[in-house]
Design a protein that fits this description.
With 298 residues, the chain is α/β, with parallel strands linked by helices. The protein folds into 2 domains: 159 residues, Vaccinia Virus protein VP39 (Rossmann fold); 94 residues, Orthogonal Bundle (DNA polymerase, domain 1), CATH 1.10.150. Helix content is 40%, strand content 14%. Helix 7 crosses helix 8, helix 7 packs across helix 11 and helix 8 packs across helix 9. Its EC number is 2.1.1.199. It catalyses: cytidine(1402) in 16S rRNA + S-adenosyl-L-methionine = N(4)-methylcytidine(1402) in 16S rRNA + S-adenosyl-L-homocysteine + H(+). One of its GO terms (cellular component) is cytoplasm. It is found in: Cytoplasm.
Length: 298
């Protein structure tokens, strides 16, 4: 079994932290230096962006997020840096990457603690909320649309493919029997009722994988990542670095191959960089983070 297929899917729905993951590793990996212009394609709460901006007084940053609330929060968080930061609301896949512009590009994938902790966004089954899960509030497809309208076979397929859920068929069957669903908690309970007791009381909640699959589908996350990996390298200056942090094996596989297959890049991380025990102890979200870095060679 290669390292890709053996890497497990670990999602921490319970414990969130507002701290940026792998902070020193990202700053060192991007080789952030005075006078540089950096692109943070997932500014979120602004944690990594702040670290980049603090490295030197003349560092410039372009900050992207597709979530208007995240962008508003990041604007506040980074207000002290004034016009050194430019904010853009966009999916990173849709961003018109300018040629040879940035000294470093960062993507810290997935949802932010802010999104998970805001019940009405519908990302978490720990709060009762409508089934939404859109990172971009203007997007039309919601988790409710998928759950209530898609065919049973399609649901089973996405749970299997994007959640790596072994019990995808019986979960899909139970959902179709009991739908329509309005809320996250109703859905999570139906999923829990579809699985054997052993599974129900396991290390993670039985709905975790199905919720991850739904989130990936609603936000078209893997397609966006592939587009990003194809377009971003050309926006680096020669010698510029790209750093990508992923949180599950489906993403990490795309990152690994995307960086390796780019004719513009040389991969600097043979194996992904992971968090030290000391970081995991104070930031549990870092436990599943994998950082890969590459440098533009031509
Ligand atoms: C894990 S958080 C980033 C946290 C940030 N690095 C920090 O230190 O605060 C991921 C953020 O990326 C955004 N995001 C995820 N996929 C995106 C995409 N395809 N385009 C733009 N933003 C995206 C999410 O809305 C979320 O705010």
């Amino acid at each position: 079994m290669n390292s890709d297929s053996s890497s497990s899917l670990i999602i921490d729905e319970q414990i969130f932290s507002h701290l940026p993951v792998l902070p020193q590793e990202v700053i060192a990996g991007l080789a952030v230096s005075a006078g540089g212009h950096y692109l943070d394609t997932t500014v979120g709460g602004g944690g990594h962006s702040r670290l980049i901006l603090q490295t030197a007084p003349d560092v410039q940053l372009t900050a992207i997020d597709q979530d208007e609330d995240a962008l508003a929060a990041a604007k506040k968080e980074l207000a002290e840096f004034g016009d050194r930061v430019k904010f853009i609301q966009s999916n990173f896949a849709a961003y018109p990457f300018p040629d040879a512009t940035f000294n470093g590009i960062l993507a810290d994938l997935g949802v932010s603690s802010y999104q998970l902790d805001t019940p009405e966004r519908g990302f978490s089954f720990r709060h009762t909320a409508s089934l939404d899960m859109r990172m971009n509030q203007q997007a039309s497809l919601t988790a409710a649309d998928v759950i209530n309208e898609w065919e049973e076979a399609e649901l089973a397929d996405i749970f299997f493919k994007y959640g790596e859920e072994r019990l995808s068929r019986r979960i899909a069957r139970r959902i179709v029997e009991r739908r329509p669903f309005d809320t996250t908690t109703e859905l999570a309970e139906a999923i829990a009722s579809a699985v054997p007791p052993k599974y129900r009381y396991g290390r993670i909640h039985p709905a975790t994988r199905a919720f991850q699959a739904l989130r990936i589908v609603v936000n078209d996350e893997l397609k966006s990542l592939e587009t990003f990996l194809a377009k971003a390298p050309n926006a680096l200056v020669p010698g510029g670095r790209i750093a990508v942090i992923s949180f599950h094996s489906l993403e990490d596989r795309l990152v690994k191959h995307g960086l390796r297959n780019s004719p513009l890049l040389r991969v600097l991380t043979k194996k992904p960089i992971t968090a030290q025990e000391s970081e995991i102890a104070h930031n549990p979200r870092s436990r599943s983070a994998k950082l890969r870095i590459a440098e533009r060679v031509n």
